[in-house]
């Protein structure tokens, strides 16, 4: 395969991925909430001047949450497409996907607390 063809296909794939991310942000309330929280946490990071390591951990947590929300949305869409009516097994699959998001969200909250509690303590007690 020629390098030009390879690069063209990769760029085309990036275009589809970007389109998917924009679609998620425009249409899914759960990802909109997560994006808002990500913006708030980013502003907090700048305000408190968190360390490079804290930035990396925060960015990873935000990326995981946003990615998993997207995957959960995809799982739900596929499940609804395959079986539009209520079905116990489809409900179970959707619950598991939502549970994965929940676990990651709780982990992100704990990470946020670990990063920001010392900064809030310093702000309050100084």
From TrEMBL:
- Record-annotated residues binding substrate? 69
Example GO molecular function: ATP binding
Q: Which residues form a coiled coil?
A: none
Identify the cofactor(s). Mg(2+)
| Chain positions recorded as ATP binding sites | 16, 28, 76, 94-95
Q: How is the cofactor bound?
A: Mn(2+), Zn(2+), Cd(2+) and Co(2+) support activity to lesser extents.
What is the top-level taxon of the source organism? Answer: Bacteria
Q: List where in the cell it is found.
A: Cell membrane
Q: Where is the active site?
A: 69 (proton acceptor)
Q: Which GO terms describe its cellular component?
A: plasma membrane
Q: Which GO terms describe its biological process?
A: phospholipid biosynthetic process
UniProt keywords, alphabetically = ATP-binding, Cell membrane, Kinase, Lipid biosynthesis, Lipid metabolism, Magnesium, Membrane, Metal-binding, Nucleotide-binding, Phospholipid biosynthesis, Phospholipid metabolism, Transferase, Transmembrane, Transmembrane helix
Regions that span the bilayer = 29-49, 55-75, 96-119
Annotated binding of a divalent metal cation, by residue? 28, 76
| Pfam annotation, one family | DAGK_prokar
How does the UniProt record describe the way this protein sits in the membrane?
Multi-pass membrane protein
Similarity comment = Belongs to the bacterial diacylglycerol kinase family.
* Name recorded for this polypeptide: Diacylglycerol kinase
Origin organism is Nonlabens arenilitoris
Classification of source organism: Bacteria, Pseudomonadati, Bacteroidota, Flavobacteriia, Flavobacteriales
